[in-house]
Amino acid sequence: MWIPVQINENSPEPLYHQIETQLRSLIIGGSIAEGTLLPSIREFAGDLKCSVITVRRVYQDLENEGLLRTRQGTGTFVSHVGDGAMETYKQETVRKALESAVDAGLSVQCGEEELIALFTEIVRSKYKKNN
Amino acid sequence: MWIPVQINENSPEPLYHQIETQLRSLIIGGSIAEGTLLPSIREFAGDLKCSVITVRRVYQDLENEGLLRTRQGTGTFVSHVGDGAMETYKQETVRKALESAVDAGLSVQCGEEELIALFTEIVRSKYKKNN
Amino acid sequence: MWIPVQINENSPEPLYHQIETQLRSLIIGGSIAEGTLLPSIREFAGDLKCSVITVRRVYQDLENEGLLRTRQGTGTFVSHVGDGAMETYKQETVRKALESAVDAGLSVQCGEEELIALFTEIVRSKYKKNN
Amino acid sequence: MWIPVQINENSPEPLYHQIETQLRSLIIGGSIAEGTLLPSIREFAGDLKCSVITVRRVYQDLENEGLLRTRQGTGTFVSHVGDGAMETYKQETVRKALESAVDAGLSVQCGEEELIALFTEIVRSKYKKNN
DNA sequence: GTGGTCTAGACCACC
DNA sequence: GTGGTCTAGACCACG
User: Fold this and answer.
1) Which of D116, D123, D125, D131 is most worth mutating to test chain C (most C CB atoms within 10 A of its CB)?
2) Lower Cβ count inside 10 Å, N or C end of chain C?
3) How far apart are CA A120 and CA A124, in angstroms?
4) Angle between the A83-107 and A15-28 helix axes, to the nearest 10 degrees?
5) Residue D23 is inside which H or E element, if any?
6) Is D123 left (phi over 0), alpha (psi -120 to 50) or beta?
7) A85, pLDDT greater than 80
8) Ramachandran sector of residue D73 (left: φ over 0; alpha: ψ -120 to 50; beta: rest)
């Protein structure tokens, strides 16, 4: 199975963290169904062109968060994610991001309307590109 | 002289980065006038209860950005900040923050209008509180 | 023949070990009579919804312990269990379990009398429920 | 600083798990005071004659549990453990251990009084040895 | 000096 | 085949 995860080689963000973030989104967002058998750590490492250990760490961290379940000799599965969890996650993530953006605006004394206008412009452009 | 910089001991953000960000805002925002003599490295480190090495790095980085000027045996002064610099800084900072917020929205498939509405709400609330 | 073995999918305990422990108890405890023909590997694996390889390993291990005997082309039978074996098994099992419980108590500096009192309480409650 | 952790080379229990268990006990049990700076991963690894990575894993796991706090470039500290946490941990650990011991007794149909007597005997002997 | 990340590669246990 | 543990060693970021 092919998992759409993109690695940015130049980002200062650690590899394992990039993968975790994306995989977490895919699972909580429902793009990967509950019960799905994920690729083996070796296979996934091959796909991502990174070390087996990095993938292992990702799987383990997400297992600790309760998103995955792994059984030795069998593989790693997506576990049940409550519907509430998805909504909570969305809201938390987005709200946190928006708040820190507003804080940045405040800190340089950017005007209220100016900030909203700029935000709207960026939203339009990014959503357009994404469709 | 007392510089209002707050360190958050529990944040994962590196010490030097927390200090740099706040000091940069103070200078570019005009809270610390051009030509001001900043505290000595040792004094500042004492105030912040951090290592002199950390303060040294902060002064160095900001000097490389052109915000500070160090004169051997005299101390570290705030340089002249062109109005252009301030504008550039504002725009860069804000735009970067807004973009990452929009990315967050995209990643959890948040609706376009919903995102803007939520952002507007947060802006209103934060700006109100701040005045 | 139906063997009452329960698999706990979520336990970190390996499958083969869960099955072995339960089957061993059934045999030594006398719930499965000497000479009984056990289900074939495939049949048992089907019942337990696990791999034949796992059941194969269970039969093999218990055969090595002398609890089972396999005859080519015929099947796997329960061997004769001497009264001594049963006693030895009981004592070993119980003593090991008790010792690790005491170790746990020691490790958190639980008081001697307190530990015994708590143990007694648990024994009473469990034995009561079991009768 | 010297941390009294013993490694059992022959145990099937993973190294990192042995260390975690003991360190957790020391912290929650109060043997290592809140705020204590633990040995660096390299130093501790040297003491335990194991890999740096194994110690790192231990520190990280315990940090995820909230028992430790680490800051890059500074070191790893014991964080605040609520008094309640200690009691809860003790009770959970001990109760779980005792219950599984009683279950073992039940499974081989060991007599109620016999079980308690044997347990008491083991307690006496272990606590004596330990003082 | 400290911790944080990543690699390659080995060996084991499980299914 | 799968995951689980452990190693040695490298390089980077932080104080």
Assistant:
1) D123
2) C
3) 6
4) 130
5) helix D15-28
6) alpha
7) no
8) left
Q: Give the pLDDT band (50/70/90) at residue A38.
A: very high
DSSP letter for each residue of D30-70:
TSS-TTPBPPPHHHHHHHHTS-HHHHHHHHHHHHHTTSEEE
Does A have 3 or more CB contacts under 8 Å with B? yes
Residues A93, B104: contact at Cβ < 8 Å?
Answer: yes
Angstrom distance (rounded) from CA C20 to CA C24: 6
pLDDT exceeds 90 at position B54: yes
Which is nearest to B30 in space by CA: B80, B91, B98?
B80
User: Do the strands A68-71 and A75-78 form a parallel or antiparallel pair, or are they unpaired?
Assistant: antiparallel
The CA–C1' separation of D82 and F12, in angstroms, is: 36
Amino acid C78: pLDDT: 95
Q: Which chains touch C (3 or more CB pairs under 8 A)?
A: D
Tokens of residue D71, six digits: 């800051």
Q: What is the pTM of this model?
A: 0.84
In 3D, which of C121, A92, D42, D78 has the Cα closest to residue B105?
A: A92
Examine the pLDDT at B78 and tell me if it is beyond 90: yes
Listed as ranges, residues in chain D with pLDDT below 70 are: none
For residue A1, pLDDT over 90 is answered with no
Tokens of B116: 């803007």
- Which residues of chain C have a pLDDT value below 50? none
What is the Cα–Cα distance from C110 to C104, expressed in whole angstroms? 9
**Residues recorded for chain C:** 131
Q: In the numeric block, which tokens belong to residue C2?
A: 């139906």
The count of other CB atoms within 10 Å of the CB of residue D13 is 11
